[in-house]
Fold this sequence. Notes:
Blueprint: E1 9-14, E2 17-22, H1 33-47, E3 54-59, E4 64-66, H2 71-80, H3 84-101, E5 107-111, E6 114-116, H4 118-121, E7 128-131, E8 136-138, H5 152-157, H6 163-170, H7 176-182, E9 187-188, H8 194-202, H9 212-223, H10 231-234, H11 236-242, H12 248-258, H13 261-270, H14 275-290, H15 294-310, H16 313-323, H17 343-348, H18 353-359
Parallel strand pairs: 2-3, 3-5, 4-6, 5-7, 6-8, 7-9
Antiparallel strand pairs: 1-2
Helix pairs in contact: 1-3, 2-16, 3-15, 12-13, 14-15
Amino acid sequence: MSEAGEPELLVEVRGSLGLLTLNRPRALNALTHGMVVMMRAALDEWALRDDVLAVAVVGAGERGLCAGGDIVSLYDEAVSGGGAAAAAFWTDEYRLNSLIARYPKPYVALMDGIVLGGGVGISAHGSHRVVTERSRIGMPETGIGFVPDVGGTWLLSHAPGQLGTHLALTGAMIGAADAIAVGLADALVPSRLLRELIAALELLDPAVEHDPMAAVDATIDEFAQPAGRAALLAERAWIDAAYAGDDASSMIERMRASGHEAALAAADALVTRSPTALTVTLSLLRRSARAGSLDEALALEFRAALRALAATDFAEGVRAQVIDKDRSPRWSPPTFAGVDPAVAKAALAPLDERERQRFGTDEWEAA
């Protein structure tokens, strides 16, 4: 149940639309394990119902769709030395992400306001990703000593040039135009028109709509407006040059040497991140770019996530940013010079027997 005693997820069928409302507005609709399980169950049911032509996901309140997963519960797992509950959560969450990506009906994500981490996972894999003038989207995991997951490395590694590398490593938040440019969204609908858009989707007629995907396309087009200029595209020259290769430390050096104002700002951001998290994230991005499917990338992220939980930087990052809020994480090691060159390879290697026993799981697989 939510803070007010209401369900954490509202599941409704309105006309021809299956509507999922994330209902933890005081927590910016952060995902719990129960919400993930309920979303999956609803989607499975609606996939078989002839009267449900499309699905939409929205966030309760005015602040955003979803701020990600419930990192405080993951922090508790990290400091206690556990991990089975976190592994179970990620198993189900990633299976939900995979289902959304291959869902047989239109899946409309209304990415209004804040959309971070796990919020990207339940939206950007959908068939119809709608942003608004209020959208602020990002994968900020390196700032807490973690790695982009929920298929984030798959999405960002397929962005134009090195734009996705920039966003994954810095954790920068972007608006509507940039989200469309990098492939995280499809169309902009003003926030004041979202209720009207939902109402129009409810009125799709099963008797006449032989191509629901096209019908939803047309419906969104009725409300869509130009997103404007994508600022990131104007930065591609220095971004593509700086983020080439597979060494994060060298990337920072190139940014410093360029003298470009935005590059210097990116370098300043990167030196505050966990060197280990940056190293593993970069390896994940490069592996995901070569992966044959989203599911293959999710399997790699699952391994990296479990290893991050078992290491020290994740707990320290959450402590500094969320628990104590001193904004001064003490990374271990504190610099790239101390990062073992083999750390990235080890983070993405198959789970060993000791890890399988600790986390109570085997390798991740879509279900």
